[in-house]
Design brief:
The protein is built from 21 helices and 14 strands. The chain is α+β, with helices and mostly antiparallel strands. The chain has four domains: 179 residues, no CATH class; 130 residues, no CATH class; 246 residues, no CATH class; 116 residues, no CATH class. It has a six-stranded mixed β-sheet with strand order 4-3-5-2-1-6. A six-stranded antiparallel β-sheet has the order 10-9-8-11-7-14. Strand 12 and strand 13 form a beta hairpin.
Length: 749
């Protein structure tokens, strides 16, 4: 029977070969897309579990300096919104630990840079970037130290004396180390503890589900291509003595061969597009191509799992043929879908609501994911009932022969009709959720106050009055830069108001008039006492909380006699911003804004700080929108296969209808309506449920008083394009209908 199955699959005429090619091509598309998602997830997992050398925690620098280990100062810098990881290192003796990616520590006066940073240093003017790093380039850092190909990392070598006397460090004059410098004897090899790693992992889970469900539908649809025509052949084999077991073997061989060929072709397509996928930077990191792989188990699972799924789908499609050798004329009547199919959908929504009630900001919505998964499954299960109900309603409301033929077929087999549009329905569901939640999250972050400060750089400096005056003078000399100083009242000679302690601030009211969103002094005051700690707080309206109002106490002393605590610099261009940042890096040491013992705070603009937060939501948006786009592609292929297969199955009745006088336009409208009715009915329900559940999530997690989100133009564009593609696929198959049903085909084999 296996040999007969191979013979019927490979050498039984043009129709069988066309069916094999179409099925293999459809399966290949689904396999390539699924491999892409699995490969991206593997790269993400490899990245998340990579040893975090920058997480190294040392000890306070002893005095005198020991003769082993090294001085280690790990900090971050920025260039045009990109983060630069910087390590200043000085060995204290032989055998000092070496960070990953290099074979020896950089000598004093030299540095190692990642390939991406080395390329920037070679092309960007030195006063915008290169002057921040003393010495010369000695080599590049290897992949072991990097998260991806676009990482900006630099190791800079010093002598111990140089590292304790960097320009602008208040500790340097006392013989102490720069803030943030530690004594390190071993380098961390544990992964970084990232609060958003589970968040992105759940997002990838949604992405895998979004592709996996439609891909299984595609494989099932493709392997059942022209099922009615194949049933006639299998019924004939039963009449000449074939047993049910023989039929199952033949059907399985046909499906396994086509699915296996599609799986191999899909793997080849994935390998061809893998370099482009590596450059996509789906979560902001351009992964190394070597990490972008589904692993050998993934390939093996595809080569084995896809043919198995195809065989199961083929066997399920033969249930009616197994009843009798006269399976063509004595088919079992299909049971109509019942109202109980909605029970899983209702249960999924209920579980989702319960999960939301247990959700906190710390759990990042995780308890709601089981309900979301069950809701997606419920949509697939409820789809045939929705199709049946929509067809009955459409038949009552719409006159004409096309509507009659379409609704009767939909009522006869709603499962097959809905199967063709399942992927599109899931894409609409996920796209609606993303289109509702992500813009809403972004709108709560990006306020008008954020926009007005987007080009204002904030940097804690911690300089004495003389050094502070020099810094202000140097910054003011940079064309396009306007300096707004904030002074420290701790250690100054002005009067300190009640309730103010170390780290509190004196600020000119003229400065506050320039930065009005940060507050205003009472009328008539020249300067006030305040606390600027809120500028560095991670609050939902990041860095725009006013810290001055009419209640602030007046400051009557000489501001220029106070230590310079913080500078804010407004710039007129990105180039000016980088010149200012370079000047600050060269002339000051990184200062912790959160008090003694906290990590140094790099100079960055309010806009960059906000963008860091927005990028987290944007990353989720990219992951799920990519999944939605892939789902639309798979769903389009599934729809094309289903419509084409349906035309082949009905070649005889459609041809007879044409011979009896039915116009081609009537038959074309039948095909369009058969796809449009279940698609529109199910997508309306899916979009409504998705929007409702998204509103519930937003109300549960958003601050009180936040406006209910509305769907934006991106959502309507994506959904519109997806539905247009779906109907475009149907239109493309209509010329086939004209050729298949020509009067010359009235004779059948």
């Amino acid at each position: 029977m296996v040999r007969l199955g191979l013979q019927l699959t490979l050498r039984s005429g043009r129709e069988a070969m066309v069916r094999l090619v179409i099925t293999a091509a459809a399966v290949a598309v689904g396999v390539a897309l699924l491999l892409g998602v699995l490969a991206e997830y593997h790269a993400f997992q490899a990245n998340a579990s990579q040893a975090c050398w920058s997480c190294t925690t040392g000890q306070p620098v002893p005095s005198p300096l020991p003769s082993h280990g090294e001085l280690w100062n790990d900090s971050v810098d920025f260039y045009q919104g990109q983060t630069i990881t910087r390590l200043d290192v000085a060995p204290l003796g032989a055998g000092a630990p070496v960070p990953p990616g290099i074979t020896r520590l950089p000598a004093p006066g030299e540095y190692y840079a990642s390939p991406a940073l080395a390329a920037l240093l070679a092309t960007v003017p030195a006063d915008e970037l290169g002057d921040r790093f003393p010495g010369h380039l000695a080599g590049t850092i290897g992949d072991a130290a990097l998260n991806g190909a676009n990482d900006l990392v630099i190791y800079i070598g010093y002598t111990p004396a140089e590292l304790t006397a960097l320009p602008g460090s208040p500790a340097a004059s006392k013989g102490g180390p720069v803030p943030g410098t530690q004594w390190v004897t071993s380098i961390s090899t544990a992964p970084a503890s990232e609060v958003f790693t589970p968040f992105f992992r759940y997002a990838f889970g949604i992405g895998v589900l979004a592709v996996l469900f439609p891909m299984l539908v595609l494989i099932s649809t493709a392997t059942r291509l022209a099922a009615d025509r194949r049933e006639e052949r299998f019924a004939a084999l039963r009449l000449v003595g074939g047993t049910p077991g023989d039929i199952r073997v033949i059907a399985s061989v046909e499906s396994v061969v086509s699915a296996f060929c599609g799986a191999v072709l899909g793997i080849a397509v994935f390998l061809l597009v893998r370099p482009a996928l590596a450059d996509a930077a789906l979560v902001g990191t351009r992964y190394f191509e070597s990490d972008l792989t589904p692993t050998s188990w993934g390939y093996l699972g595809i080569l084995v799992g896809v043919p198995v799924v195809a065989a199961i789908a083929a066997l399920l499609s033969l249930r009616r043929v197994q009843i009798s050798p006269l399976g063509v004329s004595r088919r079992a009547k299909r049971k109509p879908p019942t109202f109980w199919r909605l029970s899983v959908l209702v249960a999924g929504v209920g579980l989702y609501v319960y999960g939301l009630s247990k959700t906190t900001h710390a759990s990042i919505g995780a308890p709601a994911y089981p309900g979301l998964l069950l809701t997606m499954i419920g949509l697939v299960i409820a789809g045939p009932w929705l199709t049946s109900a929509a067809s009955r309603l459409f038949g009552r409301l719409t006159p004409g022969s096309s509507a009659l033929l379409a609704t009767r077929r939909l009522a006869d087999n709603p499962k097959t009709a809905f199967r063709a549009v399942t992927g599109l329905v899931l894409a609409v569901f996920l796209g609606t959720m993303v289109g509702t939640l992500v813009p809403a999250v972004n709108s709560t972050e990006a306020s008008p106050a954020n926009a007005s400060l987007s080009n204002v750089l904030l940097a804690p400096v911690g300089l004495d009055p003389h050094a502070g005056a020099q810094l202000i003078s140097g910054l003011s000399a940079i064309p396009g830069a306007t300096v707004y100083p904030l002074y420290s009242l701790a250690g100054g000679n002005g009067s300190v108001g009640p309730g103010l302690g170390p780290g509190d601030t004196a600020v000119s009211c003229a400065v506050m008039r320039e930065l009005a969103v940060l507050g205003q002094c009472a009328p008539g005051l020249r300067a006030v006492q305040a606390s600027d700690s809120g500028l560095f707080d991670d609050n939902p309206m990041y860095n725009t909380k006013p810290f001055v109002d009419s209640a602030n106490t007046a400051y009557t002393g000489n501001l220029s006699s106070l230590p310079l605590q913080t500078v804010m610099v407004r710039v007129n261009s990105p180039a000016t911003l980088e010149r200012v940042r370079t000047y600050l890096t060269v002339n000051t040491a990184p200062q912790p804004a959160g008090g003694q013992g906290s990590a140094p705070t790099p100079p960055r603009t309010f806009g960059e700080t906000l963008q860091i937060r927005l990028d987290r939501a944007a990353t989720l948006e990219k992951i799920v929108y990519a999944a939605v786009a892939l789902t639309l592609i798979v769903a389009g292929c599934s729809l094309a296969v289903a419509v084409g297969g349906g035309l082949v199955d009905r070649k005889r009745p459609f041809t007879l209808l044409r011979v009896s006088g039915t116009q081609v336009g009537v038959l074309s409208r039948v095909v369009m309506l058969e796809a449009a009715v279940p698609l529109l009915a199910a997508t309306v329900v899916a979009a409504g449920i998705a929007y409702g559940t998204s509103i519930l999530a937003f109300v549960r997690l958003a601050p009180a008083g936040t406006a209910i989100p509305q769907l934006g133009s991106d959502y309507y564009a994506l959904m519109g394009i997806g539905l247009a593609v779906a109907f475009g696929v149907i239109v493309v198959t209509l010329p086939l209908l004209r050729r298949m049903t020509s009067p010359g085909n009235v004779r059948f084999e």
